[in-house]
């Protein structure tokens, strides 16, 4: 049957709408990138491109954490403040001449601990994640200011630490390698492992998953824990790249990360948080932000555009979901 | 059928089961024996306690009083997972499927086929095998769907029932409990589900079925249990009963209970 109907106009339209539904915003993103490459002054210079790539790495790693929490249907609004606190702790240790490894371990531990607390609050104390992570964010912010007393740690930090973000390995920027590693881990976890399948089932249909014998509370804790760990990794890379750590250093990434995840949900697997979408959306958003600056748009235009993208993405996903639900 | 029932030890037996929700007495003092290979229909008016009774059997609710035995051994189901491990699978009224996940993902939800990985705490999914096995379960139920990656939300109501039943088969359940499997379905879809249940019976499965449709009950069940006000007041083989007889039995029970 399918062989003969492939050619029919209805079917061609269905295929077209499938393509638009899955790749429409991704294609629009590519067009946007091409636009800035062509028209934004100084966009296509090596220095600028390296900067965009670096900035994309911080954002994408943070946003992948958010994606993993969102995969188990929890919002993690504490990612940026967790990253700031973890960066401050790492910077403090580096400044106090602790070995780089200790600083890295401490930053990851801070992220993991806060992520675990978020998971505990959501599953055991039954605090909705929106509230729980807002609370954690406030606590993390306060602690970061307490540790730094409001000023930044800056100094001549050892290359063993700064090289984590600024160095290269086999000719590739370390930041890009970190991003590749985190992306591959997250993608592999969600797509290829049983734990990932249980996380997805938990996020898709909590009650059905529980009745099927899945430990849904544990899956939620894993998702939120991994979000914290991603914030910890981002923290290390941010601090290493700047040789400094300030109590609000990741603050600007929250809105960007949310936009990346939601825009990512409009592509590849419409309506579902997905790692590939987050990654591609992060690139598009950073290119957009950078391109706007280069073309002379005032700084506040970025916020306006981000806000519109956030709302537009959700509206687009919602309509994609509706269409999928009614199409038989 | 009655001879067999009298001789063989029951697969599942309930003794003195009661279920209260606070002050509400939903089930009182029910004894029930379920034998291998039977299709038992549980009927009764709304609020009669049917759902509450099967929730006890499926581990979704713990009984307030009474005991359960499987194959002569005492069992205690504290969760749906416990019941599954004892071979009792329940297909809930709302099916408990994840609509946006694929057929294969739904059939194997919570019991995925895996291969070991270098990291011992992570197991890799064997997707190809799960797709192949899902297709086998569905074709066992005579449901011909080719694409096992299709999301469940794009299936018809009857096909969704088949996916839910496939999951029960996947659990290797001896007893499959279905709460109003045809309630939300049209004529054609209902016929499909009735066929599914016949296929299960032919495959040696035991089915407990809640239904409001007396014609379905007469067509499928070996035995009918009628409840009213939490009590079981009829438990007899179906032989010879018509749909109208059943309706009268339910109404006379209600009259007695009132
Ligand atoms: N979770 C619950 N909490 C309180 N009362 C309940 C609950 N579930 C069922 N009941 C009550 O128990 C009685 C039996 O309900 P139920 O088992 O759903 O009957 P049926 O499935 O035969 O319609 C009804 O009076 C109903 O209101
Ligand atoms: Mg009911």
Describe, in plain words, how this protein is organized in 3D.
The complex is a heterodimer of chains A (328) and B (258). Chain A is mainly alpha-helical. Chain A folds into 2 domains: 63-249, no CATH class; 251-316, no CATH class. Chain A contains 14 helices and 4 strands. Chain A has helices at 2-5, 9-39, 46-71, 79-95, 100-123, 129-148, 159-166, 174-192, 194-204, 206-211, 216-242, 253-264, 275-294, 300-326, and strands at residues 153-154, 168-169, 172-173, 244-245. In chain A, the strands form 2 sheets. Chain A has a two-stranded antiparallel ribbon with strand order 1-4. In chain A, strand 2 and strand 3 (172-173) form a beta hairpin. The longest helix of chain A is centred in the first third of the chain and has 31 residues, at 9-39. Chain A is globular and about 70 Å long. The relative contact order of chain A is 0.18. Mean pLDDT of chain A is 91; it is low at 1-6 and 324-328. Chain B is of the alpha/beta class. Chain B has 2 domains: 1-87 and 173-257, P-loop containing nucleotide triphosphate hydrolases (Rossmann fold); 97-171, no CATH class. Chain B is 36% helix and 27% strand. Chain B has a 6-stranded mixed β-sheet, sandwiched between helices. In chain B, strand 9, helix 7 and strand 10 (206-210) form a beta-alpha-beta unit. In chain B, helix 6 packs parallel to helix 7 (187-202). The longest helix of chain B has 16 residues, at 187-202. Chain B is globular. Chain B starts with a helix and ends with a helix. The A-B interface holds A 189, 192-198, 200-201, 204-205, 207-214, 271-272, 321, 324-325, 327-328 and B 60, 80-81, 84, 90, 92, 96-101, 105, 109-112, 114, 117, 122-125, 151, 153-154, 156, 167. Bound molecules: adenosine-5'-diphosphate and magnesium ion. Magnesium ion (MG) is lined by residues 50-51 of chain B. The site of adenosine-5'-diphosphate has 11 residues of chain B, from strand 2 and helix 2.
